[in-house]
Amino acid sequence: MSKPNKPNKPNKPKNAPRRPAAAVTPDSPCPCGRADAYRDCCAAFHQGRATAPTAERLMRSRYSAFAVGDTAYLMRTWHPTTRPGGLDLEPAQRWTGLEILGTTGGSAFHTEGTVEFRAHFTLHGRPDSQYENSRFVREDGQWVYLDALPSV
User: Fold this and answer.
1) Which residues on neighbouring strands pair with residue 37, listed in sequence order?
2) pTM confidence score
3) Measuring CA to CA, which of 65, 85, 104, 107 is 20 to 30 A from 22?
4) Where residue 139 sits, what CATH number does that domain have?
5) How many Cβ atoms from other residues are within 10 Å of residue 111's Cβ?
């Protein structure tokens, strides 16, 4: 869902969040697809008021972070061994929906888990989607994104 940064432009702070044209407000439905308002769902994770209790909730909150342009959260929830030096989000990309296709592990009783998903988006007005089976691990008690499993 992202690509490593190219060298930063002088006027752009590293990992500065970018909002899409139609910004998500606290009262908006959460981009992750749950029934809660953004304020009561993923915003709590993005703002550091809570941490994701499961790998699936972390996946959903990371998807929402892409939707609202919160690169700081994406970097914070990326395992240090696989985290890129920065992120450069595509300004013309709009995330439009998330389908969770399956999970393994990833609960409060696990130290690792996977979340298989399809993320829908438009790019320059054209609809598309990205499939991934993401691997998550607990690092110091917190769920973090490790990497994507190879497609079979």
Assistant:
1) 29
2) 0.84
3) 85
4) 3.10.450.50
5) 12
Q: 47-59 pLDDT, tens per residue?
A: 999 999 999 999 9
The DSSP 8-state label assigned to residue 4 in this structure reads B
Residue 5 lies in a domain: no
CA dist., res. 112 & res. 103, Å (int): 11
> Which H or E element spans position 114?
strand 112-123
Percent of the chain with pLDDT over 90: 82
- Give me the long-range contacts of 50-55 (CB less than 8 A, separation at least 24): 51/142, 51/143, 52/77, 52/142, 52/143, 53/108, 53/143, 54/106, 54/107, 54/108, 54/113, 54/143, 55/103, 55/105, 55/106, 55/107, 55/110, 55/112, 55/113, 55/114, 55/115, 55/136, 55/143
Going by C-alpha positions, the residue among 112, 118, 121 that lies closest to residue 66 is: 121
- Per the domain annotation, does 95 fall within a domain? yes
Overall number of domains in the chain: 1
Token pair for residue 57? 């909730």
- Decide: helix, strand or coil at residue 58: helix
Distance of alpha carbon 52 from alpha carbon 7, whole angstroms: 31
pLDDT tens per residue, range 81-95: 999 999 999 999 999
Token pair in block for residue 14: 């590293």
